[in-house]
Design goal:
The chain is an alpha+beta fold and 431 residues long. Among the domains are: 102-209, Uridine Diphospho-n-acetylenolpyruvylglucosamine Reductase, domain 3 (2-Layer Sandwich); 214-373, Vanillyl-alcohol Oxidase, Chain A, domain 3. It has 13 helices and 17 strands. It has helices at residues 13-18, 45-58, 119-127, 145-151, 158-161, 222-229, 242-252, 274-282, 309-319, 349-368, 384-388, 392-402, 418-429, and strands at residues 9-10, 38-40, 61-65, 91-95, 102-105, 110-113, 131-133, 168-175, 178-183, 199-209, 214-218, 236-240, 261-266, 297-305, 325-331, 335-343, 372-373.
Amino acid sequence: MTEVKEIPNSDWALQRYLYTRDISNAPVINLLLKQVDVIYQPRNEREVLEVLRIAKEEGATVVPRGAGTSGYGGVLPVKDIALLRISRRKTIMVDFTRMDDFVIDEENQIVECSPGAVWWEIEKKLNKKDLTLRVYPTSAPSSTVAGWIAQGGYGVGSLKYGGIADNVEKLRIADFSGIREVEGKDLKYYLGMEGTTGLITRAWIKVKEMEEMKYYGFNVSAKEANKIVFAGDHYAGLFLDAGYIKLKNEAFGTDMPEKDVLMVATTEKLDGDEALGEEIWEKRFYPMRVRRLGPGLVAAENVLPADSIPAYLNRLNKMIKKPHGSEIWYSKGRRGAVLSFIPSDERKFFSYALTWFNSIRAMKAAKKMRGIPYSTGFYLSSEAKLLFGAEYSELREFKRTVDPKWQLNPGKVFPVGVFPLAMKILQKVVP
């Protein structure tokens, strides 16, 4: 493959191996993955375009990567045979680590970011100017701006401000035809698209003034939590069920009461336990660290209407026989993103695979209750039509227009090959 020496790059075998991994470890999936041929770390848009030029000339596929903190396989390089292609194409990974600068526009309350900018670094700089992000993911200490935009989703602040898609003002995109700036209704072609329609090289994110926030804890059920969290103009709401509290206590040696608990972050005065609320708030990051109990973790993440969540949690408790727990970040529109955890020893293939089937059972249960999977990536590309609804056909046609040879992150979002079919079959056969 043609190499551009002035752009930082690596074809070191160990690094190429590590870049075939993300935070997930789904059984059997490794058989469908390959090592990339070269890893580029561009420092600016010009170098991104140069990498795309090489890919276009040589027919190589391009996989963008941020911090790899998502568990949906969006950054994993997929074998051509898994995509039902006979010929083997070279694969370039574009690691945006070096493109991490950002500029704060205080007057317009916008932060202009390069794709590799880390959310928490942005937040710390904003705070010095009495500003703050409206929303950020629970992986904010390490995850990148473009990574979350490309995947989509909800997090801290979504109760008031919605998902990341609701907080993007404008994007700059690199594709095989050059650079384009998009805003307004055209953003839909890139939000949650996992880089399949273009690589994000710049993002303008809405921020807000800092406010004096209070944090309240309530030992209430999921049904009672709905009444509290949607009763006022609150900033964030996080529900942890008793099973998850137990997992956290075991993983970190803490001694929180093993009861269902709701945390509300708000500027309003509430009749809750401030000490409990502050304790939960301070530990809001990296919920998947309970994987140390496995060692390993099976996760299921679905977005449901808030009034369906109590029944969904009850269903999980009846369905999953192993120790497990769930956390819920509430979003405006009376919805909640439910992330459920089942510790499992990933070194024991058979038992780990059986445990992993619970994520499929959870998704089936959520869909019956008007829910949808949290994201697509590689693992759940079979669910793209459900996630994107009536716009799916338009998005797929746009993909064909900007990437006619399907070189941009193939196998993600738009289902192709054997794996999406296998996932459909599994949903039919797994009880």
